[in-house]
Amino acid sequence: MWYQEVVLQRASVYNIDWNTEVDLLKVLKKKEVLLLLVVVIMSSVTAFVGCQSQGSDKQDTQPKNDAAPAVVTPQPLEQAPEELKGFTEYTIKKQLGEKSSGGKDRIKKINIEGNGKDSIVNIELNGNDIYTADMTVRGMLMDSKKILGTLSKRQDVGSVSVSEYLDVEDIGGGTVEEWVFNLTLDRKGLDKVAGGDYLLNDLTKLAVVYKLHPNFIRSIKQAP
Q1: pTM of the model
Q2: For the chain, what is the largest distance between any 2 Cα atoms, rounded to a whole number of angstroms?
Q3: Each residue of 76-125: pLDDT tens digit?
Q4: Would you say residue 67 lies in a domain?
Q5: How many domains does the chain have?
Q6: Residue 120 within any structural domain of the chain
Q7: Among residues 30, 61, 92, which one ends one of the domains?
């Protein structure tokens, strides 16, 4: 250390007793140790206080969320109406949607005849006009299959008739809304449909009535 060199120089220049200078050096060393100890203690205290301050700042800056957690109320399951007409309307909207490809209401008319085990359900729909006549008819068969698959499970239904309408060309070259498809199943056919073991084309074989508009018949026959 710097003071050691000073003590040695002073002893040499002023001819001071070495023992006296050594004693002085020991005193200075003790003071040096004490000074270093004080510096270390002060540094430790400063560092500890700084850490505590930073921790306190972090705690203060944490967002407080004292609000109670939101309670999610389960929505009640939608139930189909028990009454036959309401049930039929509900089924069509669920299975086919509410609008046709032309933007019209899917359901044109629903008529229920009778009130009991052998009720007759007459359904008129605005159909979807698909690319070709053959594809359009196939789409109408698929519509009927979806509706009949649900209505066939009700024992108060005696028969179901599904008719679909489209805008067709009249003699003058204009368009007129006219039926193009009709499929009717009695209770016997509905029981087979309820079993589920049938193909789409089997519907026409199970039907007691299956009719297509003459223009559709011609278009299908003329299709390549």
Answers
A1: 0.64
A2: 142
A3: 667 888 899 999 999 999 999 999 998 999 999 999 999 878 999 999 99
A4: no
A5: 2
A6: yes
A7: 61
Please give the residue range of the domain that contains residue 212.
Answer: 84-222
Amino acid letter, residue 106: R
Both 98 and 193 in a single domain? yes
* Own/partner long-range contacts of 78-87 (Cβ < 8 Å, ≥24 apart): 84/112, 84/119, 84/121, 84/154, 84/156, 84/157, 85/110, 85/112, 87/154
- The answer on 207 and 97 residing in a single domain is yes
For 153-205, the pLDDT digits (tens) are 999 999 999 999 998 777 788 888 889 999 999 999 999 999 887 888 889 99
Q: Which residue has the tokens 């050691």?
A: 4
Place of tokens 């193909």: 199
